[in-house]
Design goal:
Layout (H helix, E strand, L loop, with lengths): L6 H9 L1 H5 L5 H12 L15 H14 L19 H13 L5 H10 L10 H10 L27 E13 L2 E12 L5 E7 L4 H15 L5 E3 L8 H9 L4 E3 L9 H14 L11 H16 L11 H6 L15 H4 L2 E6 L5 E4 L2 E4 L8 E7 L4 E6 L5 E3 L2 E2 L2 H4 L19 H15 L11
Parallel strand pairs: 1-4, 4-5
Antiparallel strand pairs: 1-2, 2-3, 6-9, 7-8, 8-12, 9-10, 10-11
Helix pairs in contact: 3-4
């Protein structure tokens, strides 16, 4: 035998080992060996499975007895390139695809079912795909169908590019209920360092902003932030924060996880090396889970040799300490940069509402539309600004009882000719009106 042996045939022959060396086995002994071979794990080429059935191994054995190792090589299907669909149905499918090359398999199937050509649920996606592939129609024509060119790249310096994404985590007790936690992470491209990562009760813009703030405090400012295209990342509050910090936002194209391949790889590492080791004790609360996560990131992940970098993520990040973008002028008012602004119209009594609560603002703002400055993490109203960002004063919780003793500013009354009356005249008239209302005579006159 001088021809090349197929690798699959060699693998199958290695599985049959004990059976090929003893051809005169009694029936019972062969069954025992088949059962034993089926219980062993194998590295099956081209498959994620690791076990084989007894019937499969037995079929390989009889094929080997009939034709030797060549019989163990995989054979092409006899009906390869052929479709079991009726020629008339094939013509309709191809015509519908040519009319609109962008039609997906599901759309083609729904179209045929709506026309009554096929019964609902009888036409399989795989059958459609094989037919279209055989006729060169499995990929739509046009610019949208062209292969997207992807290149492996890495940022030159640490801090040049950060990636942000969310991963669904385990369930933990949150506010008395068992709820899913979400892992929000920010990774540096050049060093694979995790700027910050935390399990949050949701995947909202507020959760992402909290992780971003902690990442900036720990690892300085990034020069570019690459994030997902979800609604949370499109929130106006997150965009405003990044604009104030001069951090350009780059949104990935929808349904292209390859754009954040390094962070997707980090998620697989978290699942395989961190979540797999957790016990019920570690899932006692969200705080406990985060404590374990931060310890694992700093003591294990950041200290472990990275195969691509040739060093640990922390060592690679420390090589570029001189090139990192420092907080600079943002350091003194970083908290204020993460505040939210809520547009409100001031009522006639000088109050505005937020989150079911009422706040008093300077009375001179009555009737104006202002921006209520809110600390979203603490749920606290800090003050009020103009829509242009100019501070206008404080916003204090409304105290109705305290307002009963509060001295109010009033405008001076005028006489019939439009001139302000003297204070003594105003006092005399006030006393006169009070006595008249109670039915009592005035006890003194102007001469007194």
């Amino acid at each position: 035998m001088t021809h090349t042996v197929h690798p699959i045939a060699l693998f199958r022959l290695s599985v049959l080992g004990p059976l090929t060396s003893r051809l005169d086995l009694p029936h019972g002994e062969r069954k025992r060996l088949l059962k034993e071979l089926a219980s062993r794990p194998y590295e099956i080429p081209g498959s994620r499975r690791c076990y084989l059935s007894e019937k499969t191994i037995e079929a390989w054995f009889y094929a080997w007895r009939r034709g030797g190792i060549d019989a163990l090589a995989p054979r092409a299907r006899r009906d390869k390139g052929q479709s079991k669909l009726a020629p008339e149905l094939q013509a309709l499918i191809l015509q519908a695809k040519r009319e609109n090359p962008k039609r997906s398999l599901d759309e083609l199937r729904r179209l045929l079912e709506a026309q009554g050509v096929v019964a609902k649920g009888t036409l399989k996606r795989t059958t459609l795909h094989r037919l279209l592939q055989r006729h060169g129609l499995s990929r739509p024509t046009g610019a949208d169908s062209q292969l997207v060119e992807r290149r492996s790249y890495v940022a030159q310096y640490a801090g040049d590019i950060w990636y942000g994404d969310v991963m669904h985590g385990p369930k933990v007790p949150i506010k008395g209920q068992l709820r899913k936690a979400y892992l929000v992470s920010l990774m540096d491209d050049a060093s694979r360092l995790i700027a910050h990562s935390a399990f949050c009760p949701g995947e909202t813009a507020l959760d992402i902003e909290g992780v971003l703030k902690q990442a900036i405090l720990k690892r300085c400012l990034p020069r570019k932030l690459v994030i997902d295209n979800g609604a949370a990342y499109r929130a106006a509050s997150l965009q405003s924060i990044c604009a104030r910090l001069s951090i350009p936002l780059v949104y990935c194209r929808p349904y292209e996880p390859e754009s954040k391949g390094k962070l997707e790889r980090w998620h697989r590492v978290v699942r395989a090396q961190f979540l797999s080791e957790l016990t019920h004790q570690h899932l006692h609360s969200l705080e406990t889970l985060n404590t374990c996560l931060w310890a694992w990131v700093e003591q294990v992940y950041h200290q472990r040799l990275h195969s691509t970098l040739g060093c640990t993520p922390l060592q690679r990040w420390q090589q570029d300490l001189d090139t990192l973008r420092s907080l600079g002028p943002f350091a003194s008012n970083l908290d204020a940069l993460f505040y939210h602004r809520q547009s409100r119209r001031v009522r006639k009594d000088g109050t505005v509402s937020f989150d079911g609560r009422t706040f008093e603002v300077p009375y001179s703002l009555v009737g104006r539309t202002v921006a209520l400055v809110v600390d979203p993490q603490a749920g606290k109203v800090v003050g009020v600004e103009s829509l242009e960002g100019e501070p206008l004063g404080a916003a204090t919780p409304l105290d109705r009882i305290g307002n009963t003793h509060r001295r109010r500013r009033r405008s001076a009354p005028v006489d019939s000719e439009g001139e302000a009356r003297p204070a003594a005249d105003r006092t005399f008239n006030a006393i006169d009106q009070a006595c008249t209302q109670h039915g009592k005579p005035l006890l003194f006159t102007e001469e007194d």
